[in-house]
Write a structure and sequence with these properties.
The protein is an alpha+beta fold. It contains four helices and nine strands. The chain has helices at residues 8-24, 31-43, 47-61, 84-98, and strands at residues 99-102, 105-108, 118-124, 130-136, 139-146, 151-156, 163-170, 173-180, 186-191. The two termini are 27 Å apart. The strands form three sheets. It has a four-stranded mixed β-sheet. Strands 3-4-5 form a three-stranded antiparallel β-sheet, with no helix packed on it.
């Protein structure tokens, strides 16, 4: 699995493969193809391509009620197919833009524009942990991660501060902690299921 934290050679191979597929084009693309393209672009940190592909999907393959259709409007067959997997893929692509999970490591905001403002809660990582985050103009103002299983959890630090203060909730008490930090540093936490 390739991600922004992969080795340079693995990342270069993935990017080259994606570029070659892009050269072939998507003239006959259906909804799920556009979302696949957006997901790969997000994983490779190609923000504008990911967003452009999502916008093309919304413009050409989405009904007024927000539900996806298999084909762009001008090619829709009489059967008018509802493609539920594309609706799920859309949510997956948006999740991939905001947080990527690879090798038991969470990378936050890897593929969103720098001045993004967003708020979400209850999103799951690839490892199943729950994430809530408040982002204002590209800066994380609030972050909560709840472990859904016990074990080591890694976080690529999205914070610029040289010291990071955080709290761990253990049963009914809150423990304050402080660690040396550098943006991009891997922070490791040994969490119990249900711990935040």
């Amino acid at each position: 699995e390739v991600s922004l934290s992969s080795s340079r050679s693995e990342f270069a191979t993935a990017q080259s493969t994606f570029e070659k597929i892009e050269e072939i084009g998507y003239a006959d693309a259906v909804g799920l193809t556009l979302l696949w393209r957006a997901a790969v672009a997000a994983r490779l940190g190609l923000i504008s391509r990911a967003v452009d592909s999502l916008e093309e999907f919304i413009e050409t393959c989405t009904r007024p009620n927000g539900v996806n259709k298999q084909y762009p409007g001008d090619r829709e067959p009489a059967a008018d197919i509802l493609q539920i997997d594309a609706n799920l893929a859309f949510a997956g692509v948006v999740n991939e833009l905001f947080m990527q999970w690879s090798d038991n490591t969470l990378n936050l905001l890897p593929s969103v524009p720098k001045n993004t403002t967003a708020q979400f809660w209850g999103w799951r990582t690839g490892g199943g942990h729950l994430v809530a985050m408040n982002v204002i103009k590209g800066k994380i103002e609030g972050l909560a991660i709840e472990a859904t299983r016990s074990g080591v959890f890694n976080l690529v630090s999205p914070f610029p501060q040289s010291r990071l203060n955080f709290k761990l909730r253990q049963k009914s008490k809150l423990l304050s902690r402080s660690v040396a930090n550098k943006k991009g540093k891997i922070l490791t936490f040994d969490l119990k299921a249900g711990q935040r």
